[in-house]
Structures are given as C-alpha cells and as structure tokens.
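Data card: per-record layout.
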Amino acid sequence: MALYDMVIAGARVIDPETGTDEILNTGINGGSIAALSRNSLAGRQEIDGGGLILAPGFIDIHTHEDTIEGGAGPLNKPLENRFFFPNTISVCAMRTGNTFIMGGNCGYSNYPMGAYLQKLEDLRLPINCMSLIGNVSLRQRLGLGDYDRASPAQIVKLKNMAAAALKEGAAGISFGLQYAPGTEFGELVALCSAAAEAGKFFAVHMRHDVPARALEGVEEVLAAAEITGAALQISHLASNVYGKNTAGENNIKKAALLIDKARKSGADIYVDVYPYNVWATSIQSAVFDQGFDEFNFGIEDLELISGEMAGRYCTPELFEKLRTAPEDTMVACHNAMPFEDIEAAYKLEYACVGSDALLTLSGDHIKGHPRSAGSPARFLKEFVREKKSFPLIEGLRKLTLNPAQRLGLEKKGRLQEGCDADLVLFDFEKIADRASYGIDACALPSEGIRALIAGGRLVHAGGTHES
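The structure for this 467-residue chain is written out next.
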C-alpha cells in the first residue's frame, strides 16, 4: 500500500466543481491532492475526518493589509517606504477556514508592488496571500488629492504605473471611487485598459453607496468593463447597492438585472459580499463628506474600532474632533443596510464571500471589525445552515470555486486529484463565528474548524471551541 505524506480519513468530501459529495479518504503528497478513494489509505500523518466535511480551503477575495504596530492604516496616505503586512489578518483568516486571502482592495495597496510581494513571500505566512494594485495609492504617489482630477499626462503615468505593478505580480487593479471622487471616468477606463491588456481584472468600490444613486455606480463600472473588455469584480455589492431607488424599486434586484444582461453578452463579472450589515471605513474618508442624510445610520451608530478610544460610540462633537485629528480612526457603521439585501446578493450565482477585513495591532491588542476573523463561519452558519438560503455545495462554491475562477487559480478552490492541497475540515453543525465588536474580541477564532491544510501542511488544528 502506498504511503502518503498525509491522509484525511472518512470525511465527507465536497467539491463544488465536479459535484462530488461522498465519504472518501484523501491522500496528500507534497503540496497536492494525490488520491481520493473509498478504500483505506495509509499516511505518515493521519487525521480522522469522521463526521466532518472536507472542502477546498476558503478563498477570501476581499481583504486589506493590516497595519504594522503603531501604523496609521491603509485608508490613510501611506508613509514613504512603509509596507503593510497581513500578519494578523492571515492568522485570523486561517482560524476561520481561509487558505488564501486577496489584499489591496478599494483602491489602497502597497507600492512598489514587486518589492512588497517579495517581502510578503519572505514572511512565509501560514496561508497564501496576493494583492491588487490600488488606484488611490497610485494617485497619492503623484500628489493627487481625493478630489483632484488627473490631467491627461497624469492619467498616462497612472496607467503606466498600474501596468508595471501588474507585470510585477499584482493580481489586478482595485479602485476606490468613493474614496477618491476626483477619479473621472476617463481615468477609470485608462487603468481598466491596463488590466485588460495584462489579462487581469479590476475590482471596484463603487462611487455611490446611497440608495438614490446606487445604480449609477453599477452602470459606470459595467460601462468601463464593456469599453475595455476587462474582467470585473464588484466589491462588497450589498454595501454599495441596497435599499430602494427613487422609483421604489429594489436596488439589488435592479443591479442583478444589469449585471446578468452584461454577463449574457459575454462580460466576465463576479461580485463579493460580506455577511454583516455593518460597514467599516475611515472616519476621515470622503464617505462622510456629504453628511448622513442619505444613509441608513447616523453619527450615533459609529463605533470606533481603532485608536485610543476604540469601543466608544461617536457623538457629534467626537465625530468632528476625529475628522481633523492627526491620526485617522476606523469606525464600524452599524445598521448600514438591510440583511435581506445581503441575502439577495449572496443568491447571485456569481457571488463570492469576502470579508473586507482590516485589523490594527496596538501593543498586545487587536482592534477592528469581527468580519476579519469570522466571515466564512458566519456565512455558513447564517445563510446555509440556519436560513437555508441555498444548498451547502452552493455555499461552498461561493467560498471556493467562484473566487478561484475570478483569480484564475486553476488548482485552488477545488478538491480533486492533482489540485493543490489547500483544504479545510469542519463540523457543519457547529461552525459559527465567535468574533464580536470590541478590542481583541474582534479576532476570536471561529468554532467548528477542525483542521486547515495549506500547501499540504497542517497549519491549524482547532477543537469545537477554542480561545
């Protein structure tokens, strides 16, 4: 009998691509899945999968690099020669079932990309990590403010910088149109054409996140995709498109019709959604420049999740003080959008689960939004096990195969012989997020994750409840 490096015995193996859903023994050699068999397998390391589900490792397509200790955060203008590494996020992501995270979203990324990716590789994080190149960060390198319009010459420079970053290994280009309102459509198209020319995609935090203008943002990014032919990832769809428009129509349903029409015409479009109705953003960002009249929430719904006052809720006086403080502050915006809109977005066949994760490390304490540590587990608990919004295999597709297809990862997001041994073993009846709002509580590991294998190595072994 062949001896495998690792064997996971008797687990319910689910592969969203082939439809496999069967009790099997899984043999791993090196970093690859070497065997899936009904027969017994022998391994140097053996894991009992009885009563548990073995699935491809989850892929979080939307995260942000966490800050270094004492750093300000990627939603601020980055300091010269400072990189933000996802050390804390990678550990939190691992403990909720992720074997892969994608950073550099919403227009903010490290730069230069080649040097960053090399340093990232040298860190030897427990899970895989890639990054997008962010348009806002590129604009900042040219000295452009949030509301500044790039000149034709500057647009050429931005495109060239983006193209160079793509060549150095960036997975695509991200845009934060709401964070840099000065980004005009011509600039968007120019950078999207760089993505198309490199055979990569662009991800967009859309320009508007108020119900009255939500569909304008969808139409803009669909137009950019059509003009350039670039593949498109719409970031955190339900946080930008929710509620009803001025005609009383449901925005998610209308957006889905627009996206479906574009996809039927050949456009390559996916969306990502996080399973919380609470935004997180920078208090000094352009998001709040027009006030709160059109939001679902008010100043009193803003919880500080970074800085010395983390855990406090805003008052009008505190909000005004922090808007002009020397250091920016991250806030959680409670009651941001209806849960039913999140569920509707997840029901789209091309939806991916993302966390929009961002954490700060302050001394020995972690501060941030619980979605950084709990998104996959919360998604499986809330929308698959409890709400039964869709079958388990479809839920797993949104966590694995859909993001793998968007990223062009042919050997990830799948549980088949010859594919990468990036796997998660979990108890479906017990999987749940434990992370909550508050210092350190935001990083609590999920329940029900029994083992995580990345690159053929056991990188995390958890019980039913751990601290």
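Known properties of this structure: The two ends are 39 Å apart (CA to CA). The longest strand covers residues 3-15.

See the next section for split statistics.
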